[in-house]
């Protein structure tokens, strides 16, 4: 029995994991951050990599170390009802409701729409998304080949397109020094904290909990059987993937900062990339950008459809099979993608502000659980306090048309006054720590009994 992988296999799995994580949103947000941060780019990079790389890789490691069958098993350490609620919310968010539709609309907006004339934008988007999801479904209906499809084929093609832009940008920088580039108002102070929040937009911490089971299954397909070997190999592949992601994020962010030597601050990262690509490649720049965006999102969408379908099969064993779930998620994603990128982003932000704190605390509890015997008291109290605070974060991030009610304004005002760091987007931190202390005390006082339940879900 083979209980150790070759470095070649580690590289393939790391490439697959990187490929599933790294969609077009992972290019749009960091390049825009680079423009906005200006001379304060280094603390912003540190914050972005913390939530854009560090937490996602820890999430993958938490699934690998749990010895279970994915996110639901890990969340069940709070309780089973909460596990069902959180797993469904997370997978629907990074799946058919937001992330998968975004995978189709981002490349269309960045690379395809500028090349189309004589057709209405709505019809063009529908035609593109139809072809896009047909390709996604072709690969997703063959999940056993995901390491080959994503790790060995699509990711290298994507890196060729992205690498060509990065190499040219660093070989011919638009500015000799970034020290004199003034940061935007948001980054004049607190650049590190702002970088952390920008990392939320990638959705990768949540994706890490979702993709963990794909990595575990890939390890099993490569011959690993024991939980120890799977956990160890998952961590090694995750670290290797994290190094690749960090290097590429660093280059993309700095490329964005250097572009301020020629261009004004862009409206968003897609416009910034279009400007940069056009500057270096001229008319051919639109084709380079289309290749970057399309292949980036294609491989991520395949990973998301696969992980969502496998998870819903396990959550509802008497329900539809894998292929049916994959077709359902593909069809729903196709429909939602046609509402447009702007609407998807606007309505995703409040959900992310609610789910991200719960994702981070569950990840950390999974990694540290051995120190408190994975006590339900600790899991339950941390999650309960975090969940309450996360509701306030959700309210604070609602779109204007939903945030104007007296009830919402009252809740946000209360949280602003009484929750430390709420204005900075981290109102959940202190409540989570309070819950951790209370959970530890209850664990020590009451002991760990199987009949103890902490109602959260």
Task: Describe this structure as you would to a colleague.
The chain is mainly alpha-helical and 457 residues long. It folds into two domains: 7-338, Amino acid/polyamine transporter I; 357-364 and 373-457, no CATH class. The chain has 19 helices and no strands. It has helices at residues 7-21, 25-37, 41-66, 71-75, 80-97, 99-112, 121-140, 146-171, 191-200, 204-221, 227-259, 269-281, 285-315, 322-337, 341-368, 376-396, 400-403, 406-418, 429-446. The longest helix is centred in the middle third of the chain and has 33 residues, at 227-259. The protein is globular and about 70 Å long. The model is unreliable at 449-455 (pLDDT under 50).
Helices, strands, pairings?
Elements: H1 7-21, H2 25-37, H3 41-66, H4 71-75, H5 80-97, H6 99-112, H7 121-140, H8 146-171, H9 191-200, H10 204-221, H11 227-259, H12 269-281, H13 285-315, H14 322-337, H15 341-368, H16 376-396, H17 400-403, H18 406-418, H19 429-446
Helix pairs in contact: 1-8, 1-10, 1-11, 2-3, 2-9, 2-11, 2-12, 3-9, 3-10, 3-11, 3-15, 5-13, 5-15, 6-7, 6-12, 6-13, 6-14, 7-13, 7-14, 8-13, 10-11, 10-13, 12-13, 13-14, 15-16, 16-18, 16-19
Brief digest:
The protein has two domains: 7-338, Amino acid/polyamine transporter I; 357-364 and 373-457, no CATH class.
Radius of gyration: 22 Å
Structural class: mainly alpha
The description of the largest β-sheet is: none
Q: What's the total number of strands? A: 0
Low-confidence runs of at least 5 consecutive residues: 449-455
What kind of assembly state do the chains in view correspond to?
Answer: single chain
Estimate the mean pLDDT confidence. Answer: 89
Secondary-structure element string: HHHHHHHHHHHHHHHHHHH
- Please tell me the total number of domains: 2
- Percentage beta strand: under 5%
CATH third-level topology of the largest domain = Amino acid/polyamine transporter I
